[in-house]
Amino acid sequence: MDTHGPGKLSLDVGSSSRRQVVAQSPNSTTSTTRTPLDIVRFADENFKAEQYVHAMLNQSTEDAVRAFHLDLLNARDAAAVDLQRNVYKNYTEFVLISKEIYKLETDMWELRGLLGEFKQVNLDLLRIGNVEDGAAALEKVSEDTYSQEALAMKALNTPSSNLATQSETQNRLSQLSALYETIEGLSKILPPTPTRYLIRDGSSTRYSEINPSNLNKVVQNVHFFLLSDALLVTTKKRGIISGKSRMVLDKCWSVGDVAIIDVKDSTEVSNAFKVLRHPDTFIYRSETLEEKRTFLTTFKRYTDELMLEKRAAVENAKSKQAAASNPLPAEDLMSPSRSDADREERARKAAGDDLTGSDVKWLTELGDELDVLVAHRDFDVAVGLIEEARKLLAKATAETPRVSTMRGNVEERTNHLAQLVSMDLANPVASKKQVQANIDKLLRLGMGDQARDFFLTSRTSIIRHRIRLVRFDGDVAIYISELAQVVFRLIRNTCEWYGGSFRDTTMASGFMKWVNGELDNFAQIFRRQVFDCHPALSVIADCLQHAMHHCKPLQEFGLHIAPILTFTLQPDIETAIAEQAADCVQSIVLAVEQDRWTLVDPKWLEGKEDEHADITAQVSKSVYQLYAVLMEFGSDVSVLMSIALYTKIVTCLTDFFSTYVARLCLTFIELSHGWTYSQRGVMLVDATFVVDELMPKVAGQLARRFDRAIPELEDTQGLLRHKVVQMRDVYFVNIVRDALMKDVWNFPTIDYTSNGGILDTAKPSEHIMRLIEELDRLQGALSPTLPRQAILTTIVDQIFEAMNAPASWTTPRGTPRRLGFHGVQQLILDIHFFLRMVESLISDATSDAANLVCEKALRTFFNVQAGGAVVKAALKSGDWYDSRVNEVMGLISKEFPNLLALQAPPG
């Protein structure tokens, strides 16, 4: 006995001695003793748990009950450990026994072969030795019995053979002739006979022969042909010259010399069976389980019929021999002194079925009595008589002609009685007691499958009838609720009646198949009434909730059909969600197309603050419409939300955001609309808010609902954020830059060829003033939530980059650009003034580019020598340009407030 410490108990399963286990609870504070837990009593066949618990805990305190529960748990754990130990211990012995069984099986078939050879030798010796007449006659009878050819020829030559028999015989001969023409080598191994016929044609079914030492290796593909006296195994071989396939005989066995044994599926092979023919064993495998079962069933049915025919023929031969060897004396026939009992005994022995005269008489008169009972509908008594008759017929040691006749009469009455009982069972108004009584009669008659089928078919008819009585008044949810109540209540009643009538556990699979059929029918009606009408998701959710509510009572009987119904309807639910999502996408596209990209008026939001509480930025109307679509879709889907619909719901939401940003991007880059700086700025604000603010909120709500992260939305957010950045930093910058360089500051076309002098009161040119004005307007149009300074800095960088391009310093004819004495100084003044006005937007790259522009301008001026004229004065110095810029800045400081605000110190 093992010691497990305090609070544990030791248990030695399998010991013959009676032991008691006392467990001390670890929570006990005193050393009080309790009633010991008697483990041995649990193994008693008459053990009753309720009585034992009542006796143990009749006057126990709560602590004692808890301790008793702990003892039971410890006993269960110890028993589980010992059971596992015994399994490991006996595993080796189990393997050895399995090998011995396999070896014994082979020895048995070897013994059968030896017995067959011994029998044949004995018959040959009897034939050669010409023993006494009785033995010779018996041998002749045996030969006639085992010769199918003699029996068949006798049947064909009898006058009773009619036209149908002749037609069937002709058909068999034609099939056999075609078989001999198809299979090459068959006529040499098995010469044709007129009595042989084809049982099963295997040309259309292919099997694989497997190597017994390596079950994964296929030796060849074969076909099985079952004849009346032989089993053929053929293969297909392709001719080298003709290239055509032909059927070649591979093996030919006598039906009586082979046995076919099913092989259970394993990890190595499936759908396999063994063909045993002493002393060889062959293993074959079929393509499907149905093919294997069909072949094995056909072979077993034919061999059983053949065995019964042989046994009946042998019994008849023995009875004839006994009658011929022991004739009744003439005085026995004539003498009245011979008792009836003796004559009955001799008749019983002559018949060879061990039935007494009274039994035979009772069985003979049983048919009339059953007819009377059936006519009076006294089915209970009739069933009892049939059971008694079957017991008497089971005592018969041989299937003699009179036994076969009486058995046929009984079975005929049984079928008729079962038909009448089945009709009562199908009565739709029968009570539970009547239904169970009729099922019990069919079970006593040995027709359990028929009883089950009739009962379930009748219940199906009742359910269909009740379904037709449910009225549809226009409200789909109410109709589905009433329909579910009818269907699932009848399924529950059927389950209760079925469990009380069919106690055999093998009948459970048939009932579950019926339940699945009724669920499929309910799902079809649900699909037709709900999904085909394309209602809102809220209506679908209400219908599903009603159906699930009426499914709950079935859980009392172990039927958890709610998940099955949900799984059946899931494709339709996903389709409905997809249709709703498609409508939402169209609403989002329409909202983007109709938006004028102006900020929503605060007056429009009055009274709607709670409704749009999640929108914390100033955006256009399309964002509010997108938010409304999301809220409506989420409200409809929330009642349907489950982990099975996770992928579909998340996909729809990602499509909503992707569609909005994609359409917004297409609208943003369209130049035909002539969007202003302000409108494009609103677009950027909308896209940024949707991606950076709205998407995380939706993802958070989904994460709380599904209790998991939403990586799909996070990945989509990263892609959409990249699009928004591209729209802001690439598309917007390029559009603004191109517009400025074309309409405002078209540097290659500005005339700087003036060769006159420049005044000390010179000011920046009109072109540079317009450029600064446009930048100031752009700065004021963009929302403060956008990186305005970065956007303007990029635009200025690209303007100076374009000014340094070679195209800006050549004429359309390809000649160098001309700059005059006045023009080059005006250009330098413009650049100085521009750099001073947008000082906060100047990067190092822009500063270098501006210096390079001034350098190019001076180099161009000196190279061309101002168009060939003589320079009469010196160029202005840097101080002059600074003084002019300072003077102009003082005059126009209030004209560009947005740009100057960038230069003001923070705070």
From TrEMBL:
InterPro entries recorded for this chain? Cullin_repeat-like_dom_sf, Exo84, Exo84_C, Exo84_C_1, Exo84_C_2, PH-like_dom_sf
Record organism: Geranomyces variabilis
Source domain of life is Eukaryota
- Location within or outside the cell: Cytoplasmic vesicle, Secretory vesicle
Q: Where is the composition biased (Polar residues)?
A: 13-27
Gene3D superfamilies linked to this entry: Exo84p, C-terminal helical domain, Exo84p, N-terminal helical domain, Pleckstrin-homology domain (PH domain)/Phosphotyrosine-binding domain (PTB)
Keywords of the record, alphabetical order, are:
Exocytosis, Protein transport, Transport
Q: Which family does it belong to?
A: Belongs to the EXO84 family.
Q: Compositional bias (Basic and acidic residues) at which positions?
A: 339-352
Q: Where is the signal peptide?
A: none
Q: Which PANTHER family match?
A: EXOCYST COMPLEX COMPONENT 8
Chain spans, region Disordered:
1-33, 318-352
- The keyword Transport is assigned to this record: yes
Q: Give the GO biological process terms.
A: exocytosis; Golgi to plasma membrane transport; protein transport
Know the name of this protein?
Answer: Exocyst complex component EXO84
What is a single Pfam family found in this protein's UniProt entry? VPS51_Exo84_N
- Please give an example of a GO cellular component term from this record: transport vesicle
Does the keyword section mention Calcium? no
Q: Which gene encodes it?
A: EXO84
Q: In this protein, which residues make up the domain named Exocyst component Exo84 C-terminal?
A: 361-560
